[in-house]
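Me: I'm a chemist; would you kindly supply a protein sequence with its structure tokens?

Assistant:
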Amino acid sequence: MLSYYLEWHMRRVLASLLLDDHDKPAGEAERESVVRKAKRSPAARAKAASKPTDDGFVVHSLKDLIAQLGTTLRNRLRRPDAAAPGVTFTMTATPTPYQRRALELLGVSTGV
């Protein structure tokens, strides 16, 4: 249940970067009746047809976005020199603009 909730929450927050519909009220307004099949909003149809987001990024599926975020690295390093034995520091890879935007939407601090 927790994984489904996390996916639902991530899809809602990241809808502008995903193929998901991020303007459902506009799609509902085009629906003739509540018993008819729901329609995608004009913004979602345009996004799916052209593939860029409003931010200029390429639209991804949630699976692809998670794969992109999976390339982010954080390493704990230790200096090998005798002048500072045992001194360690953390180095985080600089996220790509797409990764940075996704992390911003999720409310995750990159520390960069």
About this structure: The beta strands are 74-78, 88-92. The mean pLDDT is 79. The chain is about 40% helix and 10% strand. Residues 6 and 86 are 39 Å apart (CA to CA).
